[in-house]
Amino acid sequence: KINLKIDGIEVVVEEGVSILEAAQKLNIHIPTLCYHKDLCVAGNCRICVVEQTGARALVASCATPAASGMDIHTNTLKVRTARKHVIELLLSEHNADCTKCFKNGNCELQNLSSEFKILDRLFIDLVPNKHYTIDQMSPSIIKDDSKCIRCQRCVRTCEELQHLGALSVAYKGEHMKISTFYENSMYDVVCSNCGQCVIRCPTGALTEKNYLEEVWDAIYDTTKHVVVQTAPAVRIALGEELGFESGTIVTGKMVSALKRMGFDSVLDTDFTADLTIMEEGTELLTRLKRALVDKDPTVKLPMATSCSPGWIKFIEHAFPEYLDNLSTCKSPQQMFGALVKTYYAQKKKINPADIISVSIMPCTAKKFEADRPEMRSSGYKDVDYVLTTRELAIMIKQAGIDFKTLPDSNYDSMMGESTGAAVIFGASGGVMEAALRTAYEIITGREVPFEGLKVNAVRGIEGLKEASILIENVKPEWSFLEGVELKTAVAHGLQNAYELFANIKAGKANYHFIEVMACPGGCLGGGGQPIPTNAEVRAKRAQAIYREDEGKALRKSHENPEVVLIYKDFLGAPLGHKSHELLHTHYKA
Ligand code: HC0
Question: What are the 2Fe-2S ferredoxin-type domain coordinates in residue numbering (predicted)?
Answer without folding.
Answer: 1-78
